[in-house]
Amino acid sequence: MSQPNRQRLTTGLVLVLLGLGFFLLQRVEGLGDEVVLLLIGAAFLIGYFFQRSYGLLIPGCILIGLGAGGMINEDRLWWADAGWQLGLGAGFLAIYAIDRLYRGRTPWWPLIPGAVLVLVGLARTGPIFKFLLRNWPLLLVAVGILILIGAFRQRRDEPAAVAAPAPARPAGGSSDEPPTEPPVEPRVE
Q: CB within 10 Å: which end of the chain, N or C, has fewer?
């Protein structure tokens, strides 16, 4: 697909998504402002997938994380006061995960704010944090299993090494001389 067509497709999809979302906000009761963050974040993600621009992924994931965290924060759950931190942290972690899955490579910087925000959010959840504090070694086991799976997958994908045949030596030549190649005869058409 050409660049101008890709840009038109991206723009059209973003406008349709935003228009439908804002229409639903006007018509459906109970949808909060967090939905606006989710819609705008989704628009950025659509742009990222069609334009392959890392600069669109960052605000997309952060806005979706904030929207999701805000929805949690509305006293629907007993650990609602940690929703914003968990949502924003998950947004940063999503930047890394989505780019890693989509392009196969990504910078590691989103892992730092993502991990800090998720840990702060979990610390505010009380029982969940206590459970994780008691069972943190299982996290090491999970990371180790993921690394092992990656190692086996990479090993399976590598082609088997094939040894190249040794060059033939002329019958009367010494072992110090480089091998000679047979003369190439010109083609006659």
A: C
N residues, the chain: 189
The whole-model pTM stands at 0.59
- Which residue from 110, 30, 33 is spatially nearest to 67, judged by alpha carbons? 33
Buried b (16+ CB within 10 A) or exposed e, 7-30: eeebeebbeebeeebeeeeeeeee
Q: Is the pLDDT of residue 23 over 60?
A: yes
Q: d(Cα 101, Cα 52) in Å, to the nearest integer?
A: 13
Q: What is the spatial distance between Cα 30 and Cα 107, in angstroms, rounded to a whole number? A: 38
Classify burial at 154, counting beta carbons within 10 Å of its beta carbon; exposed 0-12, middle 13-18, buried 19 or more: exposed
| CB neighbour list of residue 35: distance below 8 Å, 6 or more residues apart | 21, 24, 25, 67
| CA triple 105-99-16, angle to 5 deg | 150
The 10s digit of each residue's pLDDT in 71-85 is 776 555 555 567 788
- The percentage of residues in the chain with a pLDDT greater than 90, rounded to a whole number, is 6
* Residue 84 backbone dihedrals phi, psi, to 5 degrees: -65, -45
For residue 183, what pLDDT band results from cuts at 50, 70 and 90?
low
Q: Is the pLDDT confidence value at 113 over 70?
A: yes
